[in-house]
């Protein structure tokens, strides 16, 4: 048992951790409670199921930190990026995937690996011996969550993550809506027309905001508080912060020209992104919501072009749990009080599919090296992966620790490159050039 690696959770982080350790020659057992034990957000028993958006966000590895993280994971032979490429959908400069075939492909690849087995059960206690990675994500089961809280001596931290609705394309009125990526981004015509756009006049926008504010919302359970992650705010919460907030956020009209009425600039635009390869499903970008189902249909059908919309999935809200990692984890991602256990993924306080998978990638490599008696050098904090793990294992202020996406603000400053908005393009290219060189050297040191 001591030479096996056990991974609790088969999401993005657990799947990537298993792949990395198995390719290093370690026998891996993935313990996944689904489909025997269901969650609010999951629909299948597939590994690496995408429960919220179908986007891995920007794929620009020169000017964007998440695109750089994509690059690093590809260099490290990551299974998540491999299958994302295989099932990629047009999305302008973003990396979006056909979610069901993506998860099915990840599952098939892991199940076919000679060093990987999957055990379908719910584990409710922390293991006393053996090598373990806990990658249970934001929907850690109540029993295991209680065991973690008991061990760490801290009350579990939580925020709420909201899921955006998905619309059937054939129910969209294309006499009003049109296809275009913002600023016509993309190398092909398919990429440049990857998004479905629904325009609003000022009066329509104001009526929409009124309806959002008045709609019935999901009630919280006793003792729960709405500590939302800012990168995934429900649209009602954003509208409560100011009537123009949405127009400068997910409904901004810039970079778009209404193909049905090019002379009139929309006051606001709702964008929908393709959700499957057939192009039959589109998710409403940035429209995470905690409105009740009946209210969602009424409010979203106020959007021009969606007046007769049919929904494959309505939005929802669920509790996300995460550790106060700066106080609980060491720089090897091990629980300080039980160093036989590592944590990975969103439960560590990173936010996003890519960030979660990247922490799984790192945890899998670290665990494999420990089992084999090898020492892996610390991933350079000048890299996207290194900046993230440094942040969660000590770089962040434990008193105010909240989930974080990868961003250039986590990177060490560059010498000789000016700050400020005007120097941003040169600065970001400097960050990514330095990171690529340092990450390549880190991988080379492991061969």
From TrEMBL:
Binding site for FAD: 9-14
Catalytic activity: uridine(54) in tRNA + (6R)-5,10-methylene-5,6,7,8-tetrahydrofolate + NADPH + H(+) = 5-methyluridine(54) in tRNA + (6S)-5,6,7,8-tetrahydrofolate + NADP(+); uridine(54) in tRNA + (6R)-5,10-methylene-5,6,7,8-tetrahydrofolate + NADH + H(+) = 5-methyluridine(54) in tRNA + (6S)-5,6,7,8-tetrahydrofolate + NAD(+)
Primary enzyme class: transferase
Compartments (UniProt record): Cytoplasm
Main location as per UniProt: cytoplasm
UniProt cross-references to InterPro entries, sorted A to Z: FAD/NAD-bd_sf, MnmG-rel, MnmG_N, TrmFO
Keyword Phosphoprotein tagged: no
Superkingdom per UniProt: Bacteria
Keyword annotations of the record: Cytoplasm, FAD, Flavoprotein, Methyltransferase, NAD, NADP, Transferase, tRNA processing
Cofactor: FAD
EC identifiers of the protein: 2.1.1.74
Domain MnmG N-terminal, residue spans: 5-374
Family the UniProt entry places it in: Belongs to the MnmG family. TrmFO subfamily.
Function according to Swiss-Prot or TrEMBL: Catalyzes the folate-dependent formation of 5-methyl-uridine at position 54 (M-5-U54) in all tRNAs.
PANTHER family referenced in this protein's UniProt entry, alphabetically: GLUCOSE INHIBITED DIVISION PROTEIN A, METHYLENETETRAHYDROFOLATE--TRNA-(URACIL-5-)-METHYLTRANSFERASE TRMFO
Name the record gives this protein: Methylenetetrahydrofolate--tRNA-(uracil-5-)-methyltransferase TrmFO
Gene name of this polypeptide: trmFO
